[in-house]
Design brief:
The protein is an alpha/beta fold and 237 residues long. The protein has one domain (3-236): 3-Layer(aba) Sandwich (Rossmann fold). It has nine helices and seven strands, in the order ααβαβααβαβαβββαα.
Amino acid sequence: MIHDLVAGALARAGERNAREIERAAGLVLAAVRADALVFTGGAGHSLASVAETFYRAGGLACVYPLYHPDLLPLHSAAGSTTAERRSGLAAEVLAGRAPGPEDVVFVFSNSGVNPYPVELAEAARAAGAPVVAVTSRASVEAAPRRSHSTLPEQADVVLDTGVRPGDAAFPEDAPRTVALSSLLNVYLWNEVLAHVVTTAAQEGVEVPLWRSSNVEGGDAANAALLEHYRPRVPALR
């Protein structure tokens, strides 16, 4: 029933962001060359996108997920909304390990106006790290301002999902269900990964990628990556 709706949204996102995907991939590849880290952050359901970037088959091993339990709706639905609107939480999350100039930071936020994602991006840029925002410009424009700035204003590269304000996409004439932001976030992230791997192969650069632990040789292939990144990425312990 929604095949054409979803397929159209994916196609438009790919076309709309073609140049930005290449720029984001270039930043990731630069971090890989420098043996640096790719930080990923978000709040609420955008944490699903952060989980997609971290420790999964085919994913980058050099990812540092930015997380605070208060941000996850599974712990407290209303509490997670309160947390992403709380100024200062981003500084708390970054207190343990802030990004540096050789790292790159991806911030996922559909509305892009709450203090947590905005301050996360702002702090990263202040530390010299480039920021890639994965957001919806239309949703940002329509959302009530809750911070002094917006996520796109604090980003070096903006991947625009094109999601309608409110996220719902179905029925098309009066949308009230089928939220597409998570799907489009994952799609754009994987477009970036595909570009990274393709360019790296052309340049003879090895990209650290996880193997599935449920295939023959997967655990052995991942052992060296775990040993290399565990000291810098506490979530891998």
